[in-house]
# Entry
Amino acid sequence: MERILFLFFFTIISVLLDLYFFQIIKKYRKINWAKPLFFIYWSFTVVTVFNFLYYVIDIDYNLGFSTKTFIFSVIIGNFISKLASLPFLLIDDIRRFIIYLFRKKESSSDNKISRSKFLSISASLAYGLPITSLSYGILSNNVYDYRVKRRNISFKNLPMAFDGIKVCHISDIHIGSLKNRLAVRGGIDMILNEKPDIILFTGDLVNDRASELKGWGDDLSKIRAPLGVFSVLGNHDYGEYSDWKDNNAKNKNFNDLLYSQKEFGWNLLRNENTNIEVDGERLNIIGVENWASSRFQQYGDLDSAYKGIEEENFKLLMSHNPSHWNAEVTNNFKGIDLTLSGHTHGLQYGIDIGKFRVSPVRLAYKQWADLYSSNDQFIYVNRGFGFMGYPGRVGILPEITILELNKT
# Structure
């Protein structure tokens, strides 16, 4: 129900924006190619409304992943472009309204105030920039341009035996989206070439279905490390964004996903903890199921996962959604030293240069990419290995994280 309400209000806002922005292009109605231009413009509105109806009305037809991805890209591209150019139109309309109020009323024709050419052009350019950049993100094949991000983090209570441990953090593989097998194998080779001591995967192995893993077993089984590979579930791993014939089919899909991770040699943690041992010293790893502060599933049970851990031990938490950190970890579990998350993908759109990072996803997540700290607690949010929805990346590239943990 929550998803339907979100789509409803999103569709209403999108249609209202389309009506408002039509005043930019309606001045071209006398030119020869006005009809094709208007047709293209309103086709975005039609696609947006169709998307809403598709999810509201129980249509017994599966559009397929590629078609859904295309529709998603069209809707989001159109929406972001209009948001980018909205300030210019608002400024112009406010200007026109103020002039209208103070202009001497000589005749009705005199009261007609033309739209500013400068602001109209500015709005058009602002509209075109996101569309152009989003198209570039698809055509450039940036979704396979894997980047290694390295960070050193120091802790007072890290056991001496783990001083300098190399942790590889990956997240959001979304295997159903990945079509270039050669490029993906190159990304896996990059992981292995780093020779990490341990590999931690923070969820969203698939888009919806365990069947997406067919043919990938040999590749994913290569992801190994001396101290093991540990994983948790993300919101997409439960199969709740797909239609199922019945609960038995849904449950089988979920069990197939769990079995696949076991076959890969990964240690899946579901609201539980374990430890790794080096030279008689231990490091605790806690894994919770998906938990989000809003909108997404709250299957995670950190209270249960935390049980049995001695307070003085070093504790590393894997939790898919970074909103969990502010909502529970920093408030109620101050003994957790390091949290690893993913989920946001950095929206696959933004600017990420050196220490400067900006993305619209910042409006939804305070911690959305890279390393953050609060007092003596840290969280690292991975930008994602794969992609979901929009089949491209602009500025925010797929990531392999290498964290070196040091004792101070």
